[in-house]
Amino acid sequence: MEIMDAHLREDARSLTAWYRENKRPLPWRDTGNPYHVWISEIMLQQTRIEAVKEKYLRFMKELPDIASLAECPEDDLMRLWEGLGYYSRARNLKKCAQLLVKDFDSRLPADYEKLLSLPGIGPYTAGAIASIAFDLPCPTVDGNVLRVISRRCGILEDVRLPSTEKAVRELLLPLYQDVQAGDLNQGLMELGETLCLPKDQPRCSECPLKEHCCAYHNDAMAQIPFRSASKRRRIEKRTLMIIRQGERFLLKKRSSIGLLAGLYEFPGLEGEHSAKEVRDILQEKGMTVASIFPLPSGIHIFSHIEWHMTAYEVNVTDPGNAFPGEETLLLDRDELQKKAIPSAFRTWIAHYTLRT
Questions:
Q1: Catalytic site residue from 2, 10, 21, 41
Q2: Is 270 considered catalytic here?
Q3: Are 205 and 237 in contact (CB under 8 A)?
Q4: Are residues 139 and 172 in contact, defined by beta-carbon separation less than 8 angstroms?
Q5: 258 band by pLDDT with thresholds 50, 70 and 90
Q6: Other residues' Cβ atoms within 10 Å of the Cβ of residue 154
Q7: For residue 131, which of 181, 277, 322, 334 is within the disulfide window of CB 3.0 to 4.6 Å?
Q8: Residues 142-150: what's their mean pLDDT?
Q9: Where residue 14 falls among pLDDT bands split at 50, 70, 90?
Q10: Is 88 a residue whose pLDDT tops 90?
Q11: How far apart are CA 195 and CA 283, in angstroms?
Q12: How far is residue 44's CA from residue 165's CA, in Å, rounded to a whole number?
């Protein structure tokens, strides 16, 4: 893909000016602290800004710097990350912080390649930290940037292809010569989040790039960018068991590998089971079941799987040892406040008001 456009550098200047005038006040923005950029960018991966704000502020209150993150116990870190999903990202944050303490004097390096070598930091995050925190000319190409540049330059190639992302990165590189790198990158992201919206929603009349925008002048906003169909998510049916002994709830720790690795959950069974089947399974495992009744069902969507969950409350007089060899906890409501429970189970967290 080769694009020659004499107006791109002019538009880069217009966009940075627009950004400075219109940028939203966000708690991690304009602090001058690379740690703030890093944490916010990891939190914002696949998560809406509005959902991140409160969690970011709480995270910073508890872990204000790299050293405190490096020393944070895993259970506390998982609890702070609760609701943001992709918990491996939080583990990588701690792993990276420990490496920064050990080898980089508790500082993020002002070097793109060194940033890229750190655990959990890929090309996009390395570019964001390098440009926003250190004003280095490094592109940050995400879905918003791909949409903005594809429309502005009339790029028709599939934005899912690595070759398209590579071409957009190369297109951006010369534009940092006479603008601040961080402002240009944040301007592209801000434009994609607020004006250059997907499909038939863009607010073109307010866009600082409309004068030279190929998609706008060809009425092709709904067609550009082109994104090939993604694979359909696999549906997995599961049966959830909210096992209670009085006011205490049983949690089971998941395997250290795979989906929701190492987190605590309400025990579950593969497939959809009746109340009688659940009772029989637990009693065969040695658990004394006093009563069982249905709870609201729930669906949780991961990137590649959907869990369709049937749920039951199971009241027991003796929890026994139904899960031999697995780590289980029997906790009251106050104790549950300190444990990270994945958002996959939010339906039942809300049902029992287990979160204040």
A1: 41
A2: no
A3: no
A4: yes
A5: confident
A6: 16
A7: 181
A8: 95
A9: very high
A10: no
A11: 58
A12: 19
* Length of the chain, in residues: 356
Q: What is the pLDDT of residues 43-81, one digit of tens each?
A: 998 788 988 999 999 999 999 999 999 999 988 998 899
**217-246 pLDDT, tens per residue?**
999 999 999 999 878 889 999 999 999 999
Quote the tokens at residue 229: 């169909």
Instruction: Assign domain 234-351 one CATH number from 3.90.79.10, 3.30.450.40, 1.25.40.10, 3.40.630.30.
Output: 3.90.79.10
| Highest CATH level, class, for 8-217 | mainly alpha
- Tell me the two tokens of residue 164: 């398209």
Q: Which of 2, 3, 7, 13 is nearest to 176 (CA)?
A: 13
Tokens standing for 311?
């749920």
Q: Where are the domains of the chain?
A: 8-217, 234-351
Phi, psi of 329 (to 5 degrees): -135, 145
Helical packing angle, 74-81 and 88-103, nearest 10°: 130
User: Can you name the residues that pair with 330 across neighbouring β-strands?
Assistant: 250
CA gap 1, 293 in Å, rounded? 60
